[in-house]
Design a protein that fits this description.
Layout: E1 12-27, E2 33-49, E3 53-57, H1 64-71, E4 79-84, E5 87-88, H2 94-100, E6 104-107, H3 121-131, H4 137-150, H5 167-179, E7 185-189, H6 197-214, E8 217-222, H7 225-231, E9 234-239, E10 242-248, H8 249-254, H9 259-266, H10 273-280, H11 309-316, E11 327-331, E12 334-337
Parallel strand pairs: 3-8, 3-9, 6-7, 7-8
Antiparallel strand pairs: 1-2, 1-4, 4-5, 9-10, 10-12, 11-12
Helix pairs in contact: 3-4, 3-5, 4-5, 5-6
């Protein structure tokens, strides 16, 4: 399938390989010395195809938002490769990086904090047009009105300020700002988590409509598994800076392989009392707390809470606390980082 600009819809748009984002821990006031690192993102590898939505899920603090910012080079990665349309972003600087940012935008989590309260809606949405020398004057104003209509807002709101809008309307303004430079790729950083439940579905439907209309590619970051199932084509499950499992949406929800994914899905409510009662018997309750990203386990990051750890030791003689599992393709397009499913263990 070919898009209107002649590019294949299923081409790989973004390649991430061994991405790491460490934040240094220092000690001392005057003479600071480096004593460790917070390993927010620790060796991620995945691809995003043109026109698809890759959902990135996991509990708070696992590194989802940091991953999105590192991909867009808002944080400069500690190590690894980020290729966008075969261009290595980690080596771009200055004007070259600024030009590349026309193709990549971000919708932020908090619509209250991501909009400048001293700027009108027209200036907020029009600023990217000015920065990238796309439009100015009357043309810019008309383009802003068009964008407001695209996201379902009255174009006559152009002279209003952010405080005059509701949370859902502010998020629509943020979406319009992201669309202003006609990007190919958008990182949606939990775009509905700060909104009322009644508004969340409207924003999700708007994002789907815009994706179809403008052939957008999304990295959709969230912790709500029901929302991710609705909007995503494929889903990556993160835990403590690493991807535990990556596959298409239907396979993940029908046949989760990693113990962490199984635990997450077992906690999702089902609107069927009979099915919910039956699943209560199989619910996975994780013990303990998430380790600190400043001192993650030596082996598998999930080993301190994994219900399958003793089974791995008993059946395969592998100590999950000492040996890190490979992130391997155990079925077609189904990647898992678990000793239960390393290629040598698959029948």
């Amino acid at each position: 399938m070919t898009t209107t600009n002649g590019k294949q819809k299923n081409d790989v748009l973004l390649r991430v390989k061994d991405l790491k984002m460490y934040f240094p821990i220092t000690q001392g006031i005057i003479f600071q010395r480096h004593i460790g690192d917070i390993k927010a993102v620790d060796g991620l590898s995945f691809e995003v195809k043109r026109g698809e939505t890759l959902g990135l899920v996991g509990e708070s603090g696992c590194g989802k938002s940091t991953t999105g910012r590192a991909i867009l080079q808002l944080y400069r990665p500690t190590a690894g490769s980020v290729q966008f349309e075969n261009t290595e972003l980690t080596s771009l600087k200055g004007e070259a990086m600024r030009k590349m940012r026309r193709n990549m935008q971000m919708i932020f989590q908090d619509p209250y904090a991501s909009l400048n309260p001293r700027m009108t809606v027209g200036n907020i949405i029009g600023e990217p047009l000015e920065v990238h020398n796309i439009a100015g004057g009357k043309e810019r104003r008309e383009r802003v009105k068009e964008l407001l209509e695209v996201v379902g807002l009255n174009p006559y709101f152009i002279n209003r300020y952010p405080h005059e809008f509701s949370g859902g309307q502010r998020q629509r303004i943020g979406i319009a700002r992201a669309l202003a430079v006609q990007p190919d790729f958008i990182v949606c950083d939990e775009p509905i988590s700060a909104l009322d439940v009644s508004i969340q579905a409207q924003v999700i439907n708007l994002l789907e409509k815009l994706q179809e209309e403008f052939n957008l590619t999304y990295l959709f970051i969230a912790h709500d598994l029901a929302v991710v199932r609705h909007i995503s084509n494929r889903v990556a499950v993160m835990y403590l800076g690493k991807i535990m499992e990556l596959t298409d949406r239907d396979t993940l929800y029908r046949n989760p392989l990693h113990p962490y994914t199984q635990a997450l899905l077992s906690a999702v409510p089902i609107p069927d009392p009979v099915a919910e009662a039956e699943r209560e018997k199989r619910r996975v309750i994780l013990q303990g707390d998430v380790p600190s990203p400043a001192n993650p386990p030596k082996g598998c990051n999930f080993c301190t809470r994994c219900p399958a750890r003793e089974r791995v030791m008993r059946e395969y003689g592998i100590d999950c606390a000492q040996i890190e599992p490979k992130f391997a393709e155990v079925e077609p397009d189904h990647w898992v980082a678990c000793h239960l499913y390393t290629p040598s263990r698959v029948n």
